[in-house]
Specification:
Number of helices: 3
Radius of gyration: 21 Å
Oligomer: single chain
Helix content: under 10%
Order of helices and strands: EEEEHEHEEEEEEEEEHEE
Length: 274
């Protein structure tokens, strides 16, 4: 995956697979408040060949949170400790490890995370209960097929490997285009996910590594341009100001379907100069 924003949460005690019943007190007697956002979804990197499970949760400040699968088996438990417990949390995003397919085949991955309704519960600072349900499906979008100025996407972006084929352009503009994605993935996902698919949005991320701005650890500074597009928009022009930063770029095109499941491809291009 291209470089991602990482969210660090200090003061969390987090348990996987703990016993259910964290919020049993007066469960049936309380009026439950829904989360503002409660999404659990899969992400497929079709270029690298890996899968992960992600979640994005947002709502009133809480001190305890659990996620249960369709069989009411607890998958995640978070207990906020110390001074952070007094402050409470409102938003959390997580993503699982994403081992390559030769270590964890897609079929085995999906057997770990069954499709169905998942329940997210939390206890607010004031003792009220937050609760939402979200459907997890195995419907993965087909991989998008982008071009850069009508040139098909490069398959090998490591210039030290055989087959390096990053296309080079004399100058901008640089336009990334792709046919609309209308089907589920042809080989990854369960039979319940085959056929037509409803696209929620597309996201294009372009990265430029600036070696001259390397930090004390020697790592290059990475500048990122990112845009989220509605489902009827299937092209994006990279801003000239961004192209002026360097001459080597990597990009990711990600397609999300209605349940938030998403499939990404990665590629690259060069600016060869005049």
């Amino acid at each position: 995956m291209l470089q991602k924003r990482r969210l660090a949460y200090a003061g969390l005690a987090c348990c996987i697979g703990a016993a259910p019943g964290a919020f049993a007190d007066n469960h049936d007697e309380e009026e439950e408040i829904p989360f503002d956002v409660a999404e659990i979804f899969f992400e497929l990197n079709d270029t690298d060949g890996d899968l992960g499970i992600h979640a994005l949760i947002d709502g009133d400040a809480w001190k305890r949170l659990t996620i249960e699968d369709r069989r009411e088996r607890q998958q995640l438990k978070i207990q906020v400790k110390g001074r952070l417990r007094q402050q409470g949390l409102t938003e959390i995003f997580f993503e699982s490890a994403e081992p390559p397919f030769d270590e964890l085949a897609p079929e085995e991955f999906f057997r770990r995370f069954h499709a169905g309704i998942y329940e997210i519960e939390a206890r607010t600072l004031g003792g009220e209960e937050l609760e939402s349900e979200t459907e997890l499906t195995h419907r993965m979008p087909a991989p998008p097929e982008p071009t850069v100025n009508e040139v098909p996407m490069a398959q090998q972006c490591d210039d030290e490997e055989p087959g390096y084929d990053a296309p080079a352009f004399v100058s901008g503009p640089i336009v990334i285009r792709w046919p609309a994605v209308t089907q589920t993935h042809p080989s990854i996902g369960s039979p319940q996910g085959s056929g037509d698919i409803e696209i929620f949005n597309y996201e294009v991320v372009v990265e430029a590594e600036l070696d001259e701005l390397a930090g004390p650890d020697g790592e290059a500074f990475v500048s990122v341009f990112s845009v989220v597009l509605p489902p009827d928009v299937t092209e994006m022009t990279v801003p000239a100001e961004f192209l002026a930063l360097t001459d080597s770029f990597k990009y990711e095109l990600l397609v999300r379907e209605a349940s938030f499941n998403q499939t990404a491809v990665e590629s690259c291009f060069l600016l060869a100069g005049d």
